[in-house]
Amino acid sequence: MPYKFETKKELIDYISSEVLTTSEAVKLLSCSRQYINQLVKEKKLLPIKKAGNTTLFLKSDVLNIKS
């Protein structure tokens, strides 16, 4: 699905609502960080970016795990 953002604000709004940190994914799934790490290791949940201790996921990917 192509994404098109007309303004920087639209991009920021999208990122704010659709990109999750590991902590946010843990809350959304009501699980442990270890479980998230296991999903990543098993390639069942793919990070969109890793920077130091921070890992980012698409909210839709996390919700797919929940269902």
Whole-number radius of gyration? 13 Å
Helical fraction equals 40-55%
Please give the domain count.
1
- Strand tally is 3
CA-based shape: elongated
Strand percentage? 15-25%
Tell me the span between the first and last alpha carbons: 21 Å
Pfam families: HTH_17 (PF12728)
InterPro entries: HTH_17
Domain Helix-turn-helix: 19-63
Protein name: DNA binding domain-containing protein, excisionase family
Explain briefly what this protein structure is.
By secondary structure, the protein is of the alpha+beta class.
Secondary structure: elements and pairs:
Elements: H1 8-18, E1 19-21, H2 22-29, H3 33-41, E2 49-51, E3 54-58, H4 59-66
Antiparallel strand pairs: 1-3, 2-3
Protein name: DNA binding domain-containing protein, excisionase family
InterPro entries: HTH_17
Organism: Garciella nitratireducens DSM 15102
